[in-house]
Amino acid sequence: MVQGLNAESAAQLNAGLARVRERFVSSLSDRVDDFYDLLGDLQEEQDWLDACADLRARAHKLHGICGSVGFPEIGEKAASLEAKIDSLGSELQREDIDDVRCFLNSLLDEMEQNLDAA
Question: pTM to 2 decimals?
Answer without folding.
Answer: 0.84
